[in-house]
Amino acid sequence: MASEIAAKISPGHGPGLRVPVHLGVIMDGNGRWAKARGKRRTEGHVQGVQSLRNTVEYCIRYGVQYLTVFSFSSENWTRPPEEVSFIFNLLRRFVASDLHRLMRNNVKIRIVGSRAGLEPPLIRLIDDVEAKTRTNTGLVLVVAFNYGGRAEIAEAARRLAEDAVAGRIDPSSITEASLGRALYTSDIPDPDLIIRTSGEQRLSNFLLWQSAYAELVFVPENWPDFDESSFLRVLEAYSLRERRYGGLGATGS
Ligand code: IPE
Ligand code: IPE
Ligand code: MG
């Protein structure tokens, strides 16, 4: 199935199949995947990392330029501490095991989210990974970690308010563009497509500002089961969408 569609896309992603410049992924369903197999939730997270590795490869293969993955939300702190620390360790292990390959594949890594509440060694690790991959020119892998869309907007508003109070900016000069530049994602284009696995149909505080005109595609499989056929089915669904941005679209009707 995957290779059939792949054949249809190549070369140059061929007739009719559009590839988003920026793909956002809400990687959901790790716990349910594990539970269905009588395993611990944490095993679902381990398997989820493999799906992430695979998805990075699909993005490179099919020409996605930015991939943003939701890996830990600011609300995920409400989970049992053992699960939270397991996910934190998984980020460290992912960097240790995959940085080499990501470098080889010219991937630039960005980690977006609040640094508050993160241990200094983890902050150093994040800074280090970003610095090491900064000049890479291939896929930009944006990891939303300790990320919440509302917190991001509030932080940006606070920064603009501080600038206004200090006289650095005039409040009347605040625009959508200047607020956008105060977000973590200032140098990243808005996502064209956001997908969520596991059948849930909500954003759960992911890229709230940036998703204003993103197409949304929800797929039933849990994140550890997301494979190349799933990826291509999502691209097919995206290709059928007409993006109108409030206008009348190509047909004018
Ligand atoms: C997504 O899977 C990963 C994180 C939120 C860290 P879940 O852990 O939410 O899995 P479910 O939704 O409980 O199955
Ligand atoms: C969203 O999934 C966060 C991540 C995928 C990291 P959740 O599983 O935390 O979202 P809810 O609780 O189902 O809305
Ligand atoms: Mg979930």
TrEMBL record:
- Molecular-function GO terms, alphabetical: ditrans,polycis-undecaprenyl-diphosphate synthase [(2E,6E)-farnesyl-diphosphate specific] activity; magnesium ion binding
Q: Which residues form the signal peptide?
A: none
Catalytic residues at D28, N76
Q: What cofactor is needed?
A: Mg(2+)
Q: EC no.?
A: 2.5.1.-
Q: Please share the entry's free-text remark on the cofactor.
A: Binds 2 magnesium ions per subunit.
Residues that hold Mg(2+) according to the record: D28, E215
Query: Highest taxon of the source?
Result: Bacteria
Q: Where does substrate bind?
A: 29-33, 41, 45, 73-75, 77, 79, 196, 202-204
* InterPro entries listed in its UniProt record: UPP_synth-like, UPP_synth-like_CS, UPP_synth-like_sf
For biological process, the GO terms are: polyprenol biosynthetic process
EC class, as a word, reads transferase
What the entry lists under CDD domains is as follows: Cis_IPPS
Checking PANTHER family in the record gives: DEHYDRODOLICHYL DIPHOSPHATE SYNTHASE 2, DEHYDRODOLICHYL DIPHOSPHATE SYNTHASE FAMILY MEMBER
So what does this one do?
Catalyzes the condensation of isopentenyl diphosphate (IPP) with allylic pyrophosphates generating different type of terpenoids.
The subunit structure is: Homodimer.
NCBIfam families according to UniProt: uppS
Q: Which family does the UniProt entry place this protein in?
A: Belongs to the UPP synthase family.
- What is this protein called in UniProt? Isoprenyl transferase
Organism annotation: Devosia soli
